[in-house]
Amino acid sequence: MLTQMRALSQNVFGRAIMAMVLGVMILAFAVWGIGDRFTNFNADQLAAVGSTKITVQDFRNAYQNELQQLQEKAKRGITNTEARRMGVDREVLSRLLSNAILDHEAGKLGLAVGDGEIAQAITQDRMFFNPNGQFDRDRFNLLLSENNMSEGTYVRSQRGLMMRRDVSDAVVGGIEVPQILKATIFRYQSEVRDLTFFTLPASAAGAVPAPTQTQLQQFYDERPTAFTAPEYRKLVVLSVVPANLVKPDAVSDADARKRYDDYKDTLYRIAERRTVDQVFFPDEAAAKAARDSLDKGQSFADLLKSQKKTEADVSLGTVTKDQIPDKALADAAFSLPEGGTSQPVKTPFGTVLIHVAKIEPGRTRSFDEAKGEIDNQLAIIRAKAQADKLREDIENQRAAGKTLAESAKAAGVTPRTIDAIDAQGFDKAHKPVEGLVDGPALLKAAFGADVGADTEYLQAPGGGTVWYEVLGVDAAHKLPLAEVKPRVEAMWKADETARRLAKASEAIVAEINGGKPIAAVAAAHGDLKLYKATDLSRAGAPQLPSSVANAAFGVVVGKAGATPMPGGDRLIFKVDAARAPPLKPGDEQFDKLMGQVKGGIVDDVLAEYLSEAQHEIGVKLNERALQSALSDDSSS
């Protein structure tokens, strides 16, 4: 949820361009650095961009949001030291400074965003939609609450984002890719080649004699990691996951009926839905004038035409009352008859007229309609309660000094003993250990714990709990040569064969490049079969390894080359021809490619613009306040 909200808060308006702008800005500050560092700031002031101040609290709030998102992804706590090692502090600071620069530029240009435009964007943003594809006020409030943000704060932040978007649009909106660059890049991407080739088998390397003891020892010594056994750990693991305890078939009809009777007017009620339109006006007078026109006989459709709006521009969709974000709007919409239009309604975003196109009356589902859903609901409730009870019982047993195995037995569940597992989840036969709940988090924790240590349980996705204990450690160690000698011999032989085959390939390529026909060369080396490949692109071909395309596009037309093949063979080829189609504006692939090229140019232009703006405005940083903001943070 927080990840969605963070993406939302940065990119509701103009997502694509703002994501690109922020990326460029962060890079820009990393490259340019901060212009000045001063110590004569107020204690609560972290930085200044022209006359715009960034406070320590601004930084802390942004930093904590970023840190919380990282912790959600990692499913563990992240210290300030770790976060700073990852550059989180500089990324957050760069974002704040960059936003301040664009805010300054927007102010200098006199840009403004109307309430109606913000309201319409919020109610039409899919991030706030329910599964039916409609704006959901509850979801909107939940996302704001999860991020400790009021509606007013959110609206102000979006107003700023929209103005920053307008600034960036003004800078890069008219950029086009030069025709000569289009042609060059398109040719590079779309060029295809025709090859003649044959496969030189590994046997062409000749008989490889057995290695001497000295050769084996040297090969073994030069590749220590190849002959090192990883660390293995013996674990006892217990997982309790509510989803595994859900048993809808165990719910009796009597229990289901009781739940239905208790909640039929709420949970099993299908709310009244209305198809609602809202038309925003610049002020109350304009809304009243429009309402007067309707009173005089103008249809709602004609009103939209007069306002130069379409149905899609004004539609809120078919919604329940609680899905309309503003109470005054909701009350107006659900007090109108079908086909009715409201009087002007004032909202925080402007004055609107509400129109109800259709009404779908609410009703209560029958018990039979809701039975399956009720069984699932009760089963999930009971599974969660059972999981909570097991967690409490097991933790009480562990607190009394019992081992995990003893605690599990007392609670009536069976733990799992894993005799050997490495940090990547493989056993000693290098087979994956299956069935681990939240395996990556479990392995990370288990390989950071001491043998016999009293470890904290892990919270798994879906409300699950995972306990573990380390029973033993088989430390990583280099295997003795005597133990791995057959493997060393096999690897040495494969390496020597590849070396000899590569040398033979070089000689063959030299023959072809010297003017000898490739067919004659193939015949001279064991009557090897020739093949043709046409229209080979840089992406390769299904019947050929990607290495072939890489090698073929590194050779001029008429010349030969060689590349390794799976299994130890070598492929010898000659480039017969190369061609590229003409430019194809309007073609989907062409337009996609040119869009990527334009994105790169836009990045460069934005970086230049922001660099110049930074130097013109002036950016000052209070390093002492920055260090204090980080050191005062509780996550350190």
Q: If you had to describe this structure to a student in words, what would you say it looks like?
A:
With 636 residues, the chain is α+β, with helices and mostly antiparallel strands. It has 4 domains: 210 residues, Porin chaperone SurA, peptide-binding domain (Triger factor/SurA peptide-binding fold), CATH 1.10.4030; 135 residues, Chitinase A, domain 3 (Roll), CATH 3.10.50; 121 residues, Chitinase A, domain 3, CATH 3.10.50; 90 residues, Chitinase A, domain 3. The protein contains 24 helices and 20 strands. The strands form 6 sheets. Strands 1-20-2-3 form a 4-stranded mixed beta sheet. The chain has a 4-stranded antiparallel beta sheet with strand order 17-4-19-18.
Shape: extended
Low-confidence stretches: 1-39
Q: What distance lies between the first and last C-alpha atoms, to the nearest angstrom?
A: 24 Å
CATH topology of the largest domain: Triger factor/SurA peptide-binding fold
Name given to the CATH homologous superfamily of the largest domain: Porin chaperone SurA, peptide-binding domain
Query: What is the top-level CATH class of the largest domain?
Result: Mainly Alpha
* Strand segment tally: 20
Query: Structural class, from helix and strand content?
Result: alpha+beta
What proportion strand?
15-25%
Strand order of the largest sheet: 1-20-2-3
Q: How many H/I helical runs?
A: 24
From the alpha carbons, calculate the radius of gyration and give it in angstroms.
34 Å
What's the helical proportion of residues?
40-55%
Mean pLDDT: 86
**How many domains, as an integer?**
4
Largest sheet: 4 strands, mixed
Instruction: Specify the CATH architecture of the largest domain.
Output: Orthogonal Bundle
